[in-house]
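Fold this complex.
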Amino acid sequence: MRNFEFLSPTKIIFGKNTHEQVGEVIRSYGYKKVLIHYGKGHIKRTGLYDNIVESLGQAGIQTAELGGVQPNPVLSTVRKGIELGRKENVDFILAVGGGSVIDSSKAIGMGIPYKGDVWDFYTDKTPAKTVPIGVILTIAAAGSETSKNTVITNEDGLIKRGAAFECNRPVFAIMNPELTYTLPPYQTACGVVDIMAHVMERYFSAERNVELTDRLCEGVLKTCISNAQTVMNEPENYNARAEIMFAGSLAHNGYLGLGRTEEWVSHRMGHEITAFYGATHGETLSVMFPAWMKYIYKHDTALFAKFFNRVFDVEYDFFEPENTVLRGIAKLESFYTSLGLKVRLRDLNVDENQFSEMAKKANARGKLGNIVKLDDDDLVRIYEIAY
Amino acid sequence: MRNFEFLSPTKIIFGKNTHEQVGEVIRSYGYKKVLIHYGKGHIKRTGLYDNIVESLGQAGIQTAELGGVQPNPVLSTVRKGIELGRKENVDFILAVGGGSVIDSSKAIGMGIPYKGDVWDFYTDKTPAKTVPIGVILTIAAAGSETSKNTVITNEDGLIKRGAAFECNRPVFAIMNPELTYTLPPYQTACGVVDIMAHVMERYFSAERNVELTDRLCEGVLKTCISNAQTVMNEPENYNARAEIMFAGSLAHNGYLGLGRTEEWVSHRMGHEITAFYGATHGETLSVMFPAWMKYIYKHDTALFAKFFNRVFDVEYDFFEPENTVLRGIAKLESFYTSLGLKVRLRDLNVDENQFSEMAKKANARGKLGNIVKLDDDDLVRIYEIAY
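Structure:
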């Protein structure tokens, strides 16, 4: 086990009707003026927006607002938010939505007090101070509600890039599983896949002596698998939605990676598919993870066999362990397709001729991979397998 | 799943040599004068005390100190600490030790700024403010390093009582598994049993729809079981010591109980054995847990069968599920005895004639039990089974 430090300062407020407390919660921290940041207006149609405005009003909190965040949030919206936040002199940002809205809020929070360009934080700078954020979560997927991460797409150059700073962890995360009832099946499926991918990127570690976190990862993954069909078939099943939402937060708050190396190749390669073609994040993962596994597993067959035996209940083949892996990858693909997601790049209308360019961009900040370092050529080969 | 709130504000600093950072860490929070609180001098013999004093000195932090904390920490030592802390005007308490030292430190931290008697916080009062504490952990067991709990014994009346306040969570916990190398086998075994008991008290919940935390509990327990013999046989095995230390913290920081009801009957009944006879906490649990299970399991055979099948790998008997439980309890007792611990009250030299008095005291603050409420007579019966 490697040395580590960990602090998760986000207060989790979980359960039915918890969003109605938001005004009281923000007042308890002493904030006065809040920028409400949200997506394309779904929260207005469901009545959630009205509930929030009412709660904030009752607590005597002033508001400004900026909607319009799109999936794979873009820098131009972030810049609008920074401008508005400064003009309105907000001291807090309330993200109402999923990962895109939260990531956009984190970017705005970093940008408001900063004299330079906020994109600096996605290239090489560390923020000295930020406007803090809180979350009302409506999509279980990205885990951004308790994570230090934010991913933004710079439209100028199709660059999708992540940043991770402790100061970006939200002050609180209000998580009411009922708010995810109206999430369409495709987004629900992509969310489950994203949550599981956050765990898998940590599970496939080059560090061997990490039993506790191995087993925690396995538990989160098995919980996702056993509740996935239920949230697809019964979107208003509270308990299943609650398990997935709870799992989504633990999957990406950093705890499951403690003492380990992490992988993140499938995520980074998937980001390029999104940057080039606007593909939904979760579906880039259902395509990339099996392809990555097929290319990589021989470097650590035991680890992949353990994964598929423990998580996907593939019987271990003691004489030909590799068979455990191959059956497992097939089972993983079946699981993804059972959720209605694609597992091949060709089905996402991706152009083979771009693989070389995508590989180059994915490797631009240093070679990907921990189990084994991957050259651009390796990444092209993985894209080809995924095709 | 029940609604819940959760915040774990303790910064975990985990790994080799991390204790050498303690001066820097305390300085980073701005504290100036620290009360070093510890046990019976073991840390002086190992050189740890000197390392700490050196690190604090290099960081320019002033110190006062109070050693002498005994297992099952007593109120009289807490009162000494409060007096000393006031006289020396300390603004921080550094607990160097295991659960007893940390619990005593939490009590001192509550007592210093309080005008009344610190025992009030163990009966009915809530602290308005506290002197914050940090921890250098030397025993993996109580989980007090990241918990809100403190248990103190009032010598006047042999009352061992717990209190739980969010403000008692340590600011940081430095966890270097190497510091547990010198822990004798008996304390090591008691620690493992205590850690597992903290998880089991949460696992046996009356709430059914708690899959994620069920699986996390199972993972922590399996990690303890698989490393228990190693830490007994190879006290300087870093990886095994690290797994147990990491598990001890997660076992009791509250996360595993989120959304659940909890049980705590075995703990409370064990506290009375300690209060009456000075028995070691861990060994009261190896005695009480099997007895409690034997008396209770018929109220929820499915839950106990699931526990023994998933955690102790007892094959599930589909036609007679009860057999799974009975074989499981026998396996649990064998596990405890394999660690050198007793599983019968008679072997702890407990007097049968005190059962009625002990039961009355254990139930004094409301009837114990969530799976089923237990009268004093039920508790006597459980003590009898344990005898």
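Chain B has a mean pLDDT of 97.
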